[in-house]
């Protein structure tokens, strides 16, 4: 028996018949696990890229928010006022007071502007929306000085 290879013996054949399917199954499980690791790495890479992009965007918005908090100015790119009313605006590089109309914004019109009313020759009231379209930043109007608020003689 010493000259016959083990796999050619009856015992060797039984061994291989018994263990080869188990080995094949184990190799298949290893291959599946490696594929899952590869997919997880791809997902992790995509997730890392997404998180990096979102973090950069959040940092930019935070910096803009800090700047607007420090200066009081809010970029129209960041947000618009929540309520209609008068606001201080930076319009084409000039500081002005301009009305903001929330309904105009909801209707798709430029929200900073005012109504221009005219009476035509037969007495009809004509209303035009005059846009103030160069606004890049806005801020709420400051409160008037306390002395003016309390002084009733004005």
Structure description:
This protein is an alpha+beta fold. The protein folds into 2 domains: 6-71; 78-150, no CATH class. The protein is 47% helix and 23% strand. It is built from 3 helices and 6 strands; from the N terminus they run H-E-E-E-H-E-E-E-H. It has helices at 10-71, 102-106, 146-150; strands spanning 74-75, 85-91, 94-100, 113-119, 125-131, 135-140. The strands form 2 sheets. A 4-stranded antiparallel beta sheet has the order 1-6-2-3. Strands 4-5 form a two-stranded antiparallel sheet. A hairpin with a 2-residue loop joins strand 2 (85-91) and strand 3 (94-100). The longest helix is centred in the N-terminal third of the chain and has 62 residues, at 10-71. The radius of gyration is 37 Å and the shape is rod-shaped. The N and C termini lie far apart (122 Å).
What's the SSE blueprint?
Blueprint lengths: L9 H62 L2 E2 L9 E7 L2 E7 L1 H5 L6 E7 L5 E7 L3 E6 L5 H5 L4
Antiparallel strand pairs: 1-6, 2-3, 2-6, 4-5
Give the key terms.
154 residues; alpha+beta; 4-stranded antiparallel beta sheet; two-stranded antiparallel ribbon; 3 helices; 23% strand; rod-shaped
Shape: rod-shaped
Structural class: alpha+beta
Which residue ranges are poorly predicted, with pLDDT under 50 across at least 5 consecutive positions? none
Q: What's the number of domains?
A: 2
User: How many H/I helical runs?
Assistant: 3
Tell me what portion of residues adopts beta-strand conformation.
15-25%
Largest sheet: 4 strands, antiparallel
Order of helices and strands: HEEEHEEEH
Integer-rounded radius of gyration: 37 Å
The spatial strand order of the largest sheet comes to: 1-6-2-3
Helix content: 40-55%
């Amino acid at each position: 028996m010493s000259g016959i290879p083990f796999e050619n013996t009856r015992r060797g054949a039984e061994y291989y018949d018994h263990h080869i399917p188990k080995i094949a199954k184990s190799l298949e499980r290893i291959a599946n696990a490696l594929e899952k690791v590869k997919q997880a790495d791809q997902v992790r890479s995509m997730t890392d890229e997404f998180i990096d992009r979102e973090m950069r965007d959040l940092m930019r918005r935070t910096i803009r928010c800090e700047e607007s908090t420090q200066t009081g100015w809010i970029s129209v790119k960041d947000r618009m006022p929540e309520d209609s009313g008068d606001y201080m605006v930076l319009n084409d590089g000039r500081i002005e007071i301009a009305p903001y109309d929330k309904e105009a914004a909801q209707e798709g019109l430029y929200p900073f502007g005012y109504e221009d009313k005219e009476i035509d020759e037969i007495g009809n009231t004509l209303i035009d929306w005059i846009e103030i379209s160069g606004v890049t930043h806005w801020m709420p109007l400051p409160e008037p000085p306390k002395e003016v608020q309390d002084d009733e003689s004005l």
